[in-house]
Amino acid sequence: MFFPLLTNILFAGLVPYPLSSIRKQKRLDRAEGRQKRCQKGPSMAAGSLSSTFCLHTSGVLLFQKSRGNGNTLVTFNVKKRSFLCFSSKNKPSFVDQILDYIEGGPKLRKWYGAPELLPKDGPILEDDDESPEEGECRDAVLVTDGDNDIGQMVILSLIVKQSRVKALVKDKRAAVEAFGTYVEPMAGDTNDRLFQKKVLRGVRAIICPSEGFLSQVQSMKGIQHVVLLSQLSVYRSTGGIQALINGKARKLAEQDESVAMASGIPYTIIRAGSLQNTPGGKLGFNFEKGSSARGVLSKEDAAFICVEALDAIPPSGLVFEVVNGEEKVSDWKWCFARLMENSEQRI
């Protein structure tokens, strides 16, 4: 599920590598335990990476990355659960980087300033519901759906940015196993006022990767920005049986957009085209009005845009459409400023 995004993170150098002395010892350990790992699969990130491996059991993935004068060529045969790696002497192979990420829990937690993981069978402590709200620090970003693909991609991107992340999930323990202590998982009845209050405590911004949350919230006092990924244009463009199937989702999307617009809180509504399970970062974009009703957008690109929109807070509100297209965006701050300007001109 996270494999393409994790690949980009590792190659971009955003995840810190261990020191050379630690790496040398780890390679000796890997030489003895590599076969056991392939059979048993990764442990720390089982909630995320193992599901990815299952999705690609019939394929062979080939990656080639060139840096300087050296090349790294890796063949990853998931079906046979075998690794074949060729790399330069002074550079870690792709699989070594993956294993460093999987096994690097203590080092990564130290890097990002997170506490140690709880014991596997230990309790998951609940926050104190009676903590005061006056003068509280609002530095967290709430992801309202930590179970779907886009929500999990958003969470990974926020972790890399070293943001404090809270996420609504169905299974709290599964979220802890997948993300460790980088994420504060919240599980409960989103219609319950007390649970809503607990979820929003300490939150400065909300990212909604799916419909249905905003229409349930009774109060968003203290929230500084709401980012909503909406499929409303797609739902409105369908007809016949598909329109009946999308009826409930369309109603939720309309309600969420209405709540965001009437909240008095700065909001960004991203009306995306039909969301596709395709690699992100390959194509450009198209922001033309009406494009989302007929175009498509990679889920990875959708997650990336949600995170980029987080700090581009509009004066009141911003609604724009986006699909994959020809326009390459190198400066997202400038892009959002242009979208805000165009939005004000239309008003």
Class computed from helices, strands and strand pairing? alpha/beta
How is the biggest beta sheet arranged?
8 strands, mixed
Radius of gyration: 21 Å
Helix content: 25-40%
- In spatial order, strands of the major sheet run 6-5-4-7-8-9-13-11
Total beta-strand segments: 13
Could you tell me how far the N terminus lies from the C terminus, measured between alpha carbons in angstroms? 40 Å
Note the run of SSEs as H and E: HHHEEEHHEHEHEHEEHHHEEEEHEH
How much strand?
15-25%
Could you list the spans in which at least 5 consecutive residues all have pLDDT below 50? 1-22, 37-89, 115-123, 127-132
Overall pLDDT: 74
- Summed up, the helix count is 13
Shape: globular
Outline the structure in words.
Helix content is 39%, strand content 20%. It is of the alpha/beta class. Helix 6 (149-160) links the parallel strand 4 (140-143) and strand 5. It contains 13 helices and 13 strands. Helix 6 packs across helix 12 (299-309). The protein is globular. The strands form 3 sheets. It has an 8-stranded mixed sheet, sandwiched between helices. The longest helix has 21 residues, at 20-40.
